[in-house]
């Protein structure tokens, strides 16, 4: 087994607090396209300016028409959680990972079984009324748009508000509660693991900096990130392979611990 992976497995098994931050790289293998980089949809297919908060406020009908197209491109081919999502859920089950903080809005961590989850940028499967806060499945809102009713309106009788995807749009502030919790977790963690995020988007990009001041920082990515210079562990490769390898290393360690305890018990009973 890879020495670095074994060392990290030891580190997280012994740690009091372990927080994971995930980005788009975790969901690539599930058919969700990346936003940034040369292949990213913002560079080639869509203009981020069309999806800004000020565009939504100025022209909600046009926003939703474009959003329908974006939604179909982003989520049309999604195949469900992949081995990286499942590995993180398993690390929670094993009592090793305390919380997953994600920049993704695809809901795949929850689907894979992660319970303690902070969705920093919201969840694309929900839409909310900007007036009364009523939550509606985004599919319902999109059906309205498909039927020519754009922008989709709130289903609550007497409410005249428009629906908005329950995600943080460009130019919109992060929900204070989610970011504050994520920051607190980063600060309190002995080990902070970043998976599949280029760490270029403020303010999520500042979490690893704060975490590295306090504890150990591990970065899992296929390529270089902005914060590699701060990392104590750099694991290169596809997260659908590297995270299952980490699970295996943790299980091997937990197995050794159980064996040791078993031997001690036998000795005591004898
Ligand atoms: Zn409403």
From TrEMBL:
This is NAD-dependent protein deacetylase, SIR2 family. Pfam families: SIR2. Zn(2+) binds at residues 129, 132, 154, 159. The keyword DNA damage does not apply. Residues 1-257 form the Deacetylase sirtuin-type domain. It comes from Halogeometricum borinquense (strain ATCC 700274 / DSM 11551 / JCM 10706 / KCTC 4070 / PR3). PROSITE patterns: SIRTUIN (PS50305). The active site is at residue 121. CDD domains: SIR2-fam (cd01407). One of its GO terms (molecular function) is histone deacetylase activity, NAD-dependent. Keywords: Metal-binding, NAD, Transferase, Zinc.
